Amino acid sequence: MTSLLLLSGGPDHAHDFPVTCSSIVDVLEQGGANVTVVNEPDQAAEMLSGSFDALVIHALRWRMLHDRYEPWRAQWGYHTSADTRAAISGYVRAGGGLVGVHTASICFDDWPEWRDVLGGAWNWERSSHPPVGRVSASVVEAAAGHPAMMPGLRGLDLVDEVYGDLDMAPGIEVLMVARRTPDDELQPVVWAHQYGDGRVWYDGFGHDAVSVRSPHHAALLRHGVEWVTGGAR
Questions:
Q1: What is the per-residue pLDDT for 233?
Q2: How many domains does the chain have?
Q3: Residue 233 located in a structural domain
Q4: Is the torsion defined by CA of 128, 204, 140, 201 positive or negative?
Q5: What is the domain range of residue 106?
Q6: pLDDT confidence band for 50 (50 / 70 / 90)
Q7: Residues 117, 115: Cα–Cα separation, whole Å
């Protein structure tokens, strides 16, 4: 049985993490995984070891420097310690799987290497997303046969958010793209890459439980976990 460590949690001003986390657990357990949930990044880093096949991150832990985040900063503002950086990057580099879901790309904004580990990260000077709404994402033609891409899937229609203008690491394999608005450029929303000996897969969707439980999205998420843990070739 695949053993997963799921890091969740964050401020409630935009995301209902407890409900969405519960949905992610259900979806992954339906795929045969055993999921352990933690809500503190430092605790997750301390628990990483060979007993987990992959780390899944659906959390929102960052410095919250902007004035609009002041009401939540005391509870949720987060600075990434050197030990936590070393534990996460070392785990993946040594062959552990990493799956980032939605807000994972906004996490750890004081850790420049996080972009390279995950494959992409939020840039507070440039990145943006529109309000939650209808999203149509398509599979990149060249990625249709990639083992990290669910066979037979051609696209997703969801109610969610598209994160755009992220800082992207070189060498990632973009699997799916979508637009923030009708006149926007295509934005990478699902990608895969190798970090050291570890496989990394990012799913930019998963704003809420409805998105996570959408049948095709749920199947895609399970496939991403299967790929990073070596089950999909």
A1: 54
A2: 1
A3: no
A4: positive
A5: 3-228
A6: confident
A7: 6
